[in-house]
């Protein structure tokens, strides 16, 4: 009986240490996908985080702020799902009547994804879908309107270094 109790205590202590090692307070890294850039995620509660994304390419840049709720996926330590929403603002360059022009865009974002935090390394890897609605756009020289509307094609892979384990 003492051996069983001792084994149970050791297993519980190991499990508690493993679960604690899966969590992090802040993570910083790269987001690669439809919108690539830098991502910073910080937990404000045990299951709620704020994420900031600075995305850029040769035509535009966006700053996005998201509130995310996070939970354990499939009872697998280190594997979490997250869902949330927020807003973005940015600028994009476009060609208009033989010259380049800029326009400001802003809108709302949703996010849905999975992430895995490695127990033995300060690394977090995630995949997400971030649809957005742009409230502003621009008109080209032919009278076509671009930029405004719903965009459901924003998928990405994030790789981050974790801090505060």
Task: Characterise this structure.
This protein has 165 residues and is mainly beta. It has a single domain (2-163), classed as Porin. The chain has 1 helix and 12 strands. The strands form 2 sheets. Strands 1-2-3-4-5-6-7-12 form an 8-stranded antiparallel beta barrel. A two-stranded antiparallel ribbon has the order 9-10. A hairpin with a 3-residue loop joins strand 3 (48-56) and strand 4 (60-72). It comes from Solitalea longa. Keywords: Signal.
Which descriptors apply to this entry?
165 residues, mainly beta, Porin, eight-stranded antiparallel β-barrel, two-stranded antiparallel sheet, 1 helix, disordered N terminus
Strand order of the largest sheet: 1-2-3-4-5-6-7-12
Could you say what the CATH topology is called? Porin
Q: Ends: how far apart?
A: 35 Å
Our estimate of the beta-strand percent is over 45%
Low-confidence stretches: 1-22
Structural class: mainly beta
CATH architecture: Beta Barrel
Give me the strand/helix succession: HEEEEEEEEEEEE
Number of strands: 12
The helix content, as a percent range, equals 10-25%
Shape designation: elongated
CATH class category: Mainly Beta
Number of structural units classed as domains = 1
**Integer-rounded radius of gyration:** 21 Å
- Summarize the biggest pleated sheet: 8 strands, antiparallel, barrel
Count of discrete alpha- or pi-helical segments spanning 4 or more residues? 1
Average pLDDT works out at 84
Keywords: Signal
Signal peptide: 1-21
Protein name: Outer membrane protein beta-barrel domain-containing protein
